[in-house]
């Protein structure tokens, strides 16, 4: 492409797309300051399991009550 045409097409394309917000992820590549112990790992995994399976278990345990409504 020629110089002026490229500049015009770039400006036009950005104007048509509108204002875009660029996001940067806060990713760190160095090791953690404090190592995570096995007890903390077990508690964390237990909480995630409870958060995911707890509501579905509640519904399945009370399915008869929900059928009556």
Structural class: mainly alpha
What is the tally of beta strands? 0
Helix proportion of residues, in percent?
Answer: 55-70%
> Helix tally?
3
Rg is 27 Å
Q: In percent terms, what proportion of residues is strand?
A: under 5%
Low-confidence stretches: none
What is the succession of H and E elements?
Answer: HHH
Cα end-to-end separation: 68 Å
User: Could you state the oligomeric state of the chains shown?
Assistant: single chain
Net shape: flat
pLDDT averaged over residues: 82
Sheet having the most strands: none
Keywords:
69 residues; mainly alpha; 3 helices; 65% helix
Fold and architecture overview:
This protein is mainly alpha-helical. It has three helices and no strands. The chain is flat.
Write a brief structural summary:
The protein has three helices and no strands. It is mostly helical and 69 residues long.
Write the layout of secondary structure elements.
Layout: H1 3-17, H2 38-61, H3 63-68
